Amino acid sequence: MRDKILYYVYRGFFGALAYLPLSWLFVLSDGICWLVIHVFHYRRRVVRENLLRVFPDRSDEERYKIEVAFYHHLCDLFFEIVKLLHISDEEMARRVEPEGVELVEECARQGTPAFILFGHKGNWEWAEQMYVYLREPMTCCQVYRPLRDKAFDHLILHLRKRFDSVSIPQMQVLRTVLRLRREPKPFLVAFNSDQHPNSDVQTHWTTFLGQDSAYITGAEEIGRKIGAKFLYMDFEQTRRGYYRISIHNIEPAEGEQFPYTISYLRMLEASILRQPEQWLWSHRRWYLSREEYNRQQAHTSNPRLAE
User: Which domain holds residue 18?
Assistant: First the structure.
């Protein structure tokens, strides 16, 4: 009951905000950004540690500029997501410039599942606008990791329904994809795949943004089972509140155990370096080193090995 009441509180409050033009919401964003940086210090230590890791050769002033620009983007992103409650289809069409949709349509014509990989860069919640440009009918899905705040999680799922897409909880991906594969209608599944793996299974490692990084292989492992086509979705902010969202083929990297995942990470890396303020620096991407992970696994499997 508490979550249900809280959901309607969120829905009412954010719904009222969403009636305001984005230009007004961006004024609010500027004010809240100042509070986030100078009063609440939201994850500021994590942001600064991440920026120092990735850009050790840049000056303090250069990293600070990226930091401030990131917080402005983060606050804008919040209001851009809220705006989905009442934004018109015409305004969304003006604000999202699509490229590469024909690659997904080709998959639909061939009856091949399309697996689209993307990261927490730009406005990933506007990615579903790409679905409206598909001329070939497809079942459009995205994988999501449920939020701890169940009421807010329910609100986000509600926002995603405006594009008639299917949200698949992370733990139900394989079962859902195998069911979709048995159906005659082509489908696509979008994976937001730049977070640290949160499972106890074997973790794979590579270099990402100059850091020894664990990475998620689930999309490629499932895609191989069903013969999926792997695509990358890039987000580029062209100006405030406007994005170019482009889809590209992922060419497999030679000599890698997970060649499509590694190529995707290289493409995402290039995109982040092009617009670093647009990536989610506030998440703890490198909270666990390979050595710490191996020690944890050794202790779990055999406590004596960790002594």
Answer: 2-306
